[in-house]
Amino acid sequence: MNGEQPQQLVDHLFRHESGKMIAVLTRIFGIHNLQLVEDVVQETFVKALQVWKFNAVPGNPQAWLMRVAKNASIDLIRRQQKLNFVSDEVAAQLQADTTQTIEQFFLDTEIADSQLRLIFTCCHPALPPEDQVALTLKTVSGFGVAEIARALVSNEAAIQKRLYRARVYIKNRQIQFEIPAGKALYTRLQSVHTVLYLLFNEGYNSMKADELIRYDVCAEAMRLCRLLTTHAVAGVPASFALLSLMCLQASRFDSRINEDNEIILLQQQDRQKWNHELIQLGYQYLRKSSSGNRLSIYHIESAIAAEHCMAPAFEQTNWERLLQLYDMLLAQKPLPVVQLNRAVILAQLNRLPQAIDSILDIYGIHDLLKHHYMYSAVLGDLYSKGNNIPEARRHLQHAYELTSSLAEKKLLQHKLSQLPA
To answer: Roughly how many angstroms between the first and final C-alpha of the chain, as a whole number?
Structure first.
């Protein structure tokens, strides 16, 4: 059974294959039939679960899923018997042979092109940015509503409204399923980068209780980003910088968690376990991103990741250079999380009081401390280094109560146990 139970395998394949299938079927039926397409894909995975529970899982389950989806689309078209049911692109070709026409859209090159089309369609500038991101995460990457809510720091009801609003807008305005050209592409590309960045971050530091790193989510983000870099127009410097960042961050996966699912902090990580092939790929993509005259946030974040990778040991990290990079990043991306990370660098430079003050000066810090464990966790750590034990204990305990991650809870519990009585 490919070493997996049918339910586990179907869940895994839904993450990896549903976006491809939706992209291909959307190209066949048109973006106005997005809800129908999602239903067909959902039915395909339900059928897979039913069949595979009682029969052997096929040797190539991905091909099985694609074949079932293809046959379902052919049956739908034949039952409808009207060309306005499908996209304009397919309608012109259906006069010849339905099966042959549908078949061509399931070729690897067409699948990749269809996925790029779907990403750019979901990131249509007429949609509010938050709707673009939610729709892409749901449609292209198979995120559930709860996952999207976590990634966008929102609630499930709000995400449901965003998704419904986006689908209705696309259908009513007859949005075209296409990769735009010229200036229109660059308008959408920024949203596309944001989506892939958020997708990777959800995998890199997952909010799931029992899974700190979601390798499949990170791999999907990297695959989609690589698709961008191979496109004649979307392969801009920022796309290469984002892919570089993903490679450099992913290179540390094997050293971040031990056998007991406990977090290993950067200063304790075995750098021999870092994936040096991925590091070299990261450097290579960073070099490719150096053309042009615009410095994106992904250039800066990739440079930050590269500084960590270049340091032979934690103690030999160029903290002054990192502070310069965070100052540059903060100028372009004035978000609380950037200010928080900058404070950590200040502490490494023995500027502990300034580091604590800079966190307490973050706009909206009281609400952030109430709802997001990381701010309390960092403050607790900094107060511990400054021997302010009551404040350290208070913040670390609060962070422990806020996080749902078992690995994070273990780490925070360990830090609390190390505090003097």
So the answer is: 53
- C-alpha span between 347 and 386 (Å, rounded): 10
Residue 336 token pair: 């609380």
Please tell me the distance from the alpha carbon of residue 228 to that of residue 206, in angstroms, as a whole number. Answer: 24
Cα–Cα distance measured from residue 340 to residue 329, given in angstroms and rounded to the nearest whole number: 12
Q: How many residues does the chain have?
A: 421
Distance CA 127, CA 172 (A): 13
Can you tell me whether residue 92 is helix, strand or coil? coil
Determine the Cα–Cα distance for residues 213 and 408; give it in Å rounded to an integer: 12
What lies within 8 Å, CB to CB, of 409 at 6+ separation is: 400, 403
**Which two structure tokens, joined as six digits, stand for 315?**
């103690």
Residue 170 tokens read as 């696309």
- Single-letter amino acid, residue 384: S
What phi, psi does 398 have (nearest 5°)? -65, -40
**Cβ contacts of residue 401 below 8 Å, gap of 6+?**
none
Residue 23 contacts residue 17 (beta carbons within 8 Å): no
In whole angstroms, give the CA distance from residue 386 to residue 97.
74
72-88 mean pLDDT: 69
CA atoms within 13 A on the CB side of 413: 10
Where b means 16+ CB within 10 Å and e means fewer, 194-226 reads: bbbbbbbbbbbbbbbeebbbbeebbbbbbebbb
Q: Which long-range CB contacts under 8 A does 336-340 form with residues at least 24 apart?
A: 336/362, 336/363, 336/364, 336/365, 336/368, 336/375, 337/374, 340/374, 340/375, 340/378
Q: Give the tens place of pLDDT for each residue, 271-321.
A: 999 999 999 999 999 999 998 888 999 999 999 999 999 999 999 999 999
Taking the C-alpha atoms of residue 234 and residue 123, their distance in angstroms, rounded to an integer, is 13
Q: What is the largest CA-CA distance in the chain?
A: 81
CB 376 within 8 A of CB 369: yes
SS3 263: strand
The whole model's pTM is what?
0.80
pLDDT in tens, 159-206: 999 999 998 888 888 787 777 777 777 778 888 898 889 888 878 876
